[in-house]
Amino acid sequence: MIRSSAASRRTVIKAMGAGALAMGGVGLAAAPARADLAKAQKLLKELIGDKAPQEGKVRLEMPQIAENGQTVPLTAAVDSPMTADNYCKVIHILADGNPEAGVCSFKFTPSSGRAEFSTRMRLAQTQNVWAVAEMSDGSVWMTKTEVKVTIGGCGG
């Protein structure tokens, strides 16, 4: 008899310990990490250095309201002649509310003909999406747009 009550006590203590561990992890899993404006700006500095981005030349087409953040269409383009002396080298897409600020980067050469691409991305919440273009002459151009997300994407 003593043996069975000791086993029950051990079982109860183990169960309580497992429950406490599970409850302790609940708060950690409930709030996934998010990028923010400061993280997006830090990433931008890592990508372009001390160059100051100018407004213009870059076009970013996205819906103002995304019914579903799981798959949001975007088209980015840069007004560039795409010649050997004057072309867009890369377009970076950043989102300041996703788990990671850096979404994608597309590289171009004069042989590309146009500096333009279309894709889809996930958005975790309503946020700004930036398109930043680095040109062959060293200049940097950008634009941004806010997209309102009605149903969660990256973060659930």
Q: Roughly how many Å is the radius of gyration? A: 24 Å
Uncertain ranges: 21-31
In CATH, the architecture of the largest domain is: Sandwich
- Structural class by helix and strand composition: alpha+beta
Topology:
Layout: H1 2-30, H2 37-48, E1 54-55, E2 58-61, E3 65-66, E4 72-78, E5 88-95, E6 102-107, E7 115-121, E8 127-135, E9 140-149
Parallel strand pairs: 1-9, 3-9
Antiparallel strand pairs: 2-4, 4-7, 5-6, 5-8, 8-9
Q: How does this structure look, described?
A:
- There is one protein chain.
- The chain has 156 residues and is α+β, with helices and mostly antiparallel strands.
- The strands form two sheets. Strands 1, 3, 5, 6, 8 and 9 form a six-stranded mixed beta sheet that branches. Strands 2-4-7 form a three-stranded antiparallel beta sheet, with no helix packed on it.
- It is 26% helix and 35% strand.
- Residues 21-31 have low confidence and may be disordered.
- The protein has two helices and nine strands, in the order H-H-E-E-E-E-E-E-E-E-E.
- The protein has helices at residues 2-30, 37-48; strands spanning 54-55, 58-61, 65-66, 72-78, 88-95, 102-107, 115-121, 127-135, 140-149.
- The longest helix is centred in the N-terminal third of the chain and has 29 residues, at 2-30.
- It has two domains: 1-31; 37-149, Immunoglobulin-like.
- A hairpin with a 4-residue loop joins strand 8 and strand 9.
